[in-house]
Amino acid sequence: MTDEHIYLWAQWGILNFDQYQIVVKQFGNLETAWKKIDLHFLIQLGFGKEKAERILDIKEAIDFHQLIRRIEVLNARVIDIDDPEYPSCLRSISSPPVFLFVRGKLPPLHKSLGVVGTRKITDYGKLITEKFVSELVINGFVIISGLALGVDSCAHEAAIKNNGITIAVLGSGVDYIYPVANHNLSERILKSGGAIISEYPLGTPALQHHFPIRNRIISGLSRGVLISEGGIKSGALITARYALEQGREVFAIPNNLTKLGLSGTNHLIRRGEAKLVENIEHILEEFQMQTSEIKKTITFSATESELLEYIMNGGKSIDELVLETPYNVAKLSEIFINLQLKGVVREINRKWVII
Q1: Whole-prediction pTM value?
Q2: How many domains in the chain?
Q3: Is residue 284 classed exposed, middle or buried when 0-12, 13-18 and 19+ CB atoms within 10 A define those classes?
């Protein structure tokens, strides 16, 4: 399958994961499907006749060369669910996006946390969001949020301020920054080494119903989600529900009992759907991690330090390290057992990573 057909299907934007599987099973690959798919098959996929006809009209109107020019101007790319760059943590959720439009660089996500909350952030919410995100970044976490006003913006800003990496997941195309007031913030996310991603085709506006759907991506990219401040009916609680369904940890910071409009975190804690956290140590404990201050006191042998350098940027499997280092499987296993006992590494998805 060529990149051209990945880009064309991504921009067409009609397939959810279940439909993607049906199309590939029927036609073998997206390149063949692009040439052969017809009105009858679209109806079989579940589209009404009139909508299917409109969808085919849109397909014929997509200009590949114009699309490529737009992508190049944005310095963006498209990855599909079978691409090695596609985040494995996102691939594992029940309804993963088939395609991702990506601006910037996707960092390793073995230490990632979604941070979300109300758009109507209070002084208290700003204070605790900045405090937690600052400490999470210092401890090596990538911060995932949605570029909305309020808690999202505060989380992105705090990550950048502390020289951290942050990813913004949009409810629009990656060429349509919403809200407009956050355009400068989006550029700083990219300049600081982060990424802006979306499952929506270029040119897609920020429609209200897109945001609850995109929240599954925020939680899907994250090992857990922190709700710093929000109401019972806020989008942040939708993200928390997705996180629970996906088997992610959910953390909530208790709010002032007199602020009934912002009692969403208390609601989650009371129902046992989130763990109450008062400091960064409570989050690290759940992930069996140590703070950066504790790690500074640990001493390493020359061999241990050498291997930590090898896995610094995302982790590697034993098989990969056998090829890249002078050590055999037995020696590597011995070293990693010692590092694991020191609480600085863990094996995740058959790759050894720094925690």
Answers
A1: 0.84
A2: 3
A3: buried
